[in-house]
Specification:
The structure holds two protein chains of two kinds. Chain A is of the alpha/beta class. Chain A has helices spanning 21-32, 46-55, 70-83, 101-107, 120-130, and strands at residues 8-12, 36-39, 60-65, 90-95, 112-114. In chain B, helix 12 links the parallel strand 7 and strand 8. Classes of the chains: A alpha/beta, B alpha/beta. The interface between A and B is large, with 39 and 50 residues.
Chain lengths: 139, 566
């Protein structure tokens, strides 16, 4: 039997903010942890993010946002994943969120929110524990 | 030479006695070792236990320091510095609608701020009106939404635009927003020749760090030169570029990288303006800089002093500037947002105070102090008042503004200032070798240097080599602050509707004519006759929205998107 393939991760920046320090640091940390990482760059629409996630056949999407537009973009991304039968892709978020928004984001299916000060090792560990490679898509 | 600060005899004795002292120090360490294996600044520049005249033995007071207001301006750009006039207290402000921000401006002025600084929301920063599908969820969140010249009128209502200087943090659409500012000021009866202020207008650092991206580098530079050229002839009190290290630093750069990349961006703008046919002494005096004041106190002071000396030398030697004003690195400073913590946010007041003190001792011309809640959101009134009061207390109570450049002559500060300049020059030579900043950006060079530094710092934090109180030492949970500002999601619909009504009332023929002229100028070769600014002022006065002008730019010049490397 073939070995389990490496986890494939998409780091994505929805919205218009250019604060990409966190996204680029976590992308490197995931790469150093042995995952395969794709990074979208800044200013991606929900449609672009979901389409990249499907094309790249990723197991996890990490959304990084610091502008406050998560209230629009996160639900839209979850909706689009469903519409594309890709809701088995795990989605997590990182950045700055009002505290009262965090339970709401979890309620729409965002598995975890990592706030400022989260340790890279903890995030990597969370991924190892909670994300498994998706089943191969049946053509 | 013979003009050195210490005699040979003094230095000989110092060398011997320093060696003796070092032995004593080593002996003492055997009883109690040093706290850390290695001491370094927040940028990871190693520092020694003690600095002495030996560290600055090659310095020449007149060549390297000079007097305030004199070349090479190490000790400050004005002869009087804060003895005559304090730095401008300029709080970066922008939230919700133009009216909301106008109210905040008045609040800040009532509480003693002395200059305005405008934060635009992300759609405005990227050249989109609020109604753009790309703007969903962003309206008024990280700044004010400005679509039209009417919004600009509401933004500055009741403020005397010839008395107060206004800074606007806007980059790829800077020409458009500046045109709206000028058009509105003239509509209100002010004279453009008397308007004072700053547009950030620093497109190069967008590619390097801040990532508000619109056009490719070449046409971006063309528009920057158009604004410099227009300012030189038409708005002579305006600072047409604020060459910014702030965002480079926030993206994770070291102090040296911030200094070097920013100064090199400055070199590039000067070269481009000279290529256009401008004379260096006609425009260089209106270039200003913008530094980050991070948490490492002495490193920041050294960086700011080195920046003045480095810029003065480059302007004199590389560009043959004659006027002292052309050689002055005048700058705004903002305390470091990235040094603040979401945990125990009241501690941010202490961080900001320390950083503000460094900016003052570094000789800044204006200052923004971050609010304690700025780590979550744009600040509340309560928090912004504390931040402004921080500057006022430093200015009026502590005595730190009463003596010019009080740290000059400190063996450590002078040695660190030299090191900043030397290491920045290494980068500057490297950038020359790469063929200039645009070529370096295309090779992803500054971007990756910064990404490396950011990752290195994060790893140091993870290992506990760099300490952040409340985060990796005495860790604490993020509390709920009682006064965090909330921006209503409904504002978006209000702003969309208002801009629609504005558009419906425009004289379509007049607007089309103005837009055609703007297009003609954009398509033509860059020169004074094709300078976009006069056409833009006509266009926005005829009702062109920000996005309509920027869409025209995108059509003519093409677009640029983030390559997404890490």
């Amino acid at each position: 039997m073939a070995e389990e393939r490496k986890l494939r991760i998409l780091i994505a920046k929805p919205g218009l903010d250019g604060h990409d320090r966190g996204a680029r640091v976590i992308a490197r940390a995931f790469r150093d942890a042995g995952f395969e990482v794709v990074y979208t760059g800044c200013h991606q629409t929900p449609e672009q993010i979901v389409s990249t996630a499907i094309q790249e056949d990723v197991d996890l999407i990490g959304l990084s946002i610091l502008s406050g537009a998560h209230r629009y973009s996160f639900p839209r991304i979850m909706e689009l994943l469903k519409e594309n039968n890709a809701e088995d892709i795990t989605v997590i978020g990182g950045g700055i969120f009002p505290l009262e928004d965090i339970p709401k984001l979890k309620a729409i299916g965002i598995k975890e929110i990592f706030e400022p000060g989260a340790k890279l090792d903890d995030i990597v560990q969370w991924v190892r524990t909670n994300v498994k490679p998706r089943k191969a898509m049946v053509a | 030479m013979g003009r050195k600060m210490f005699s040979e005899a003094q230095l000989d004795r110092m060398e011997k006695e320093y060696k003796d002292w070092l032995q004593e120090y080593q002996k003492a360490l055997q009883k109690m070792p040093e706290r850390m294996e290695r001491f370094s600044t927040v940028s990871d520049m190693e520092v020694k236990a003690l600095y002495t005249p030996l560290d600055i033995k090659d310095k020449d007071y007149f060549e390297d320091l000079g007097f305030p207001g004199q070349f090479p301006f190490t000790r400050g750009v004005q002869p009087t510095m804060y003895r005559a006039r304090l730095w401008t207290m300029r709080m970066f402000a922008g939230l919700g609608t133009a009216e909301d921000t106008n109210k905040r401006f008045h609040y800040l002025i009532e509480h003693g701020e002395t200059g305005l600084s405008t934060a635009f929301d992300f759609p405005t920063l990227m050249g989109y009106d609020t109604e753009s599908p790309l703007a969903r969820g962003e309206c008024g969140k990280c700044g004010v939404a400005i679509d039209t010249v009417d919004d600009m009128q509401r933004l500055f209502a009741g403020i005397n635009l010839e008395e107060v200087t206004t800074s606007m943090t806007i980059n790829p659409p800077a020409s458009v927003i500046w045109a709206m500012y000028i058009a509105n000021a003239e509509n209100e009866g002010y004279d453009r020749k008397k308007l004072g202020g700053t547009i950030q207008n620093d497109c190069l650092k967008e590619f390097i760090a801040q990532k508000t991206l619109m056009l490719p580098p070449e046409p971006s530079l063309r528009l920057v030169v158009d604004t410099v050229e227009f300012g030189t002839y038409e708005v002579p009190r305006w600072n047409t570029i604020s060459i910014s290290g702030y965002h480079i630093r926030e993206a994770g750069a070291t102090a040296v990288q911030e200094l070097a990349f920013t100064i090199y961006d400055g070199i590039t703008y000067v070269e481009e303006c000279i290529k256009r046919g401008l004379k260096v002494d006609d425009f260089a005096g209106r270039l200003s800089f913008f530094w980050n004041s991070h948490i490492d106190f002495f490193e920041e002071i050294a960086k700011m002093r080195a920046a003045r000396r480095l810029w003065a030398r480059l302007m004199k030697d590389r560009f043959k500037a004659q006027k002292p004003r052309s050689m002055m690195c005048r700058f705004h400073t903002q305390t470091a947002g990235c040094s603040l913590t979401a945990q125990e946010p009241y501690n941010n007041i202490i961080r900001t105070t320390t950083e503000a003190l460094a900016a003052i001792l570094g000789g800044t011309q204006s200052l923004h102090t971050n609010s304690l809640d700025e780590v979550y959101m744009i600040p509340s009134e309560e928090a912004v008042r504390i931040a402004l009061r921080t500057q006022q207390i430093l200015a009026d109570e502590t005595g730190v503004a009463n003596v010019i450049d009080p740290l000059a002559g400190s063996y450590f500060v002078e040695a660190l200032t030299d090191k900043m300049e030397e290491e920045a020059m290494v980068y500057i030579r490297k950038l020359d070798e790469l063929g200039g900043m645009v070529a370096a950006i295309e090779k992803d060079y500054p971007q990756m240097e910064i990404a490396d530094a950011a990752y290195h710092f994060q790893q140091q934090v993870e290992k506990g080599e760099k300490i952040i109180i409340g985060v990796n030492k005495f860790p604490s949970a993020r509390p709920e602050l009682e006064f965090v500002l909330k921006i209503d999601d409904e504002l978006e619909n209000f702003q969309i509707e208002r801009t629609r009504q504005f558009k419906a009332k425009r004289d379509k023929v007049k607007l089309q004519k103005a837009m055609d002229e703007l297009r003609r100028r954009c398509e033509g070769p860059p020169c004074w006759e094709n300078n976009v600014m006069p056409a833009l002022i006509d266009a926005v006065r005829a009702g062109a929205t920000e996005q309509e002008c920027c869409d025209l730019y995108r059509e003519v010049f093409g677009t640029y998107s983030d390559p997404g490397t890490f």
